[in-house]
Amino acid sequence: MKIAVIGMGYVGLVTGACLADMGHSVTGVEKDEGKVELLSRGEPTIYEVGLPELLERNLDRSLTFTTDLQEAVRGAEIVFITVGTPQSEDGSADMTYVTRAAEEIAPAVTGYKVIVNKSTMPVGSTRLVERIIRERAGGEEFDVVSNPEFLREGTAVRDFMHPDRIVIGTDSQRAAGVMTELYRPLNAPLLITDPASAEMIKYASNAFLATKVSFINAIANICEAVNADVKEVALGMGYDRRIGFEFLRSGPGFGGSCFPKDCRALIEIARRSGYNFYLLEGVMQVNREQMELMVRKAEGMLGDLKGRRIAAWGLAFKAGTDDIRESPAVEIVRMLMERGAEVVAYDPRAMGNARRALPLLECADNPLEAARGADLLMILTDWEEFKFADFRAVGEAMREKKILDTRNCLEPISVRRLGFDYQGVGR
Ligand SMILES: NC(=O)c1ccc[n+]([C@@H]2O[C@H](COP(=O)([O-])OP(=O)(O)OC[C@H]3O[C@@H](n4cnc5c(N)ncnc54)[C@H](O)[C@@H]3O)[C@@H](O)[C@H]2O)c1
Fold first, then answer.
1. Which residues are CB-contacts of 386 (< 8 A; sequence separation ≥ 6)?
2. What's residue 102's pLDDT?
3. Are 37 and 185 members of one domain?
4. Does ligand 1 have an atom closer than 6 angstroms to the CB of 6?
5. Is 169 found in the same domain as 215?
6. Is the predicted pLDDT of residue 101 greater than 90, yes or no?
7. What's the pTM value of the predicted model, to 2 decimals?
């Protein structure tokens, strides 16, 4: 099939590259010329495992990039909208990029096309995009469907190719047929439903996962007070198939470009429909307090943070990505700096993005250099390389042998045996 994907961010680029690899002819549209230049040379604009290989395999064969949205749309049977839907001031999803994209798409709708809302958009957005295009596309035939994306940064390519389910929201049998055909090779459970339900599925899924994280963080804080180990508690809970093991890892709170903004947007969707979503407001409050708690723990280990040197291992919002949007690590580093701590950070992939967000942040070339002379080492992102660091050397490089492991990724016994004062979360 001929496909246009509008917006070459984390979702659009992965979607485009994967569809090209499945044998479709894909044009990736991006308004940022710099990104188009890099991508056209086969250079990924984001860090994502497997993406460089997909680009190399498909570039100029089944995958091309352009800034010319209308030409790409004119030649396409399916048009994916994968632009950002960031948070507005009131917490709702900002639909500016989506409405602009729809306005630009409209004049290029010549002959039947399926327009796919893949970005995370509030309930009613399928109808909104349909209205915008209909007003501008004359009598041309088209359908708009909701097809939310569930991929996770860090495992995005695998998630796209092996999804747990594919959700299609449409009232059109014709569009449902086209989408079914498109995704048939993925062999995944396909749920065809109405547009509003499809839109709600995405928000409800993210809000539920965020709830699990805040729940286990709350349990962790109680565990600490009663001398229980939250890792054991989560394990014991996870064996219950009704609960499951996933998303029961306590830590510094959830972040990233999706959970926080999608929870806030759902709270706002609920409010506008006359329902107070107290439960999800609580989830967000627990999350905010969890980040502050990590800073208070650092104060507990060091006293006043003014002038104290803290090594921060990890800045990405989770391992496997260079994305720092709403990263708890960056938020915690910011709070430490505000309290006068001298933070030296290291992250294998996210330092470039973090430097742009925190221009005063000092960064080191490797984890050991970050730890040199530090009074405290804080592990803020659970990159594999941190788990297997040479802690004997780290201890020798530090001024004080103290570790605050906000991701619970180390074995307390083994680092304590090396003489570290070690604290995790809920252990
Ligand atoms: N990042 C994730 O893990 C993830 C997962 C599932 C769903 N989502 C959702 O997918 C959507 C996209 O997220 P993202 O992280 O990929 O965003 P992003 O900010 O990384 O990328 C959006 C891209 O779209 C481009 N763009 C905006 N308007 C354009 C236009 N008119 N024409 C061409 N390009 C345009 C921007 O320049 C940018 O490169 C959001 O709604 C998000 O909530 C994200």
1. 313, 314, 367, 379, 409
2. 98
3. yes
4. yes
5. no
6. yes
7. 0.95
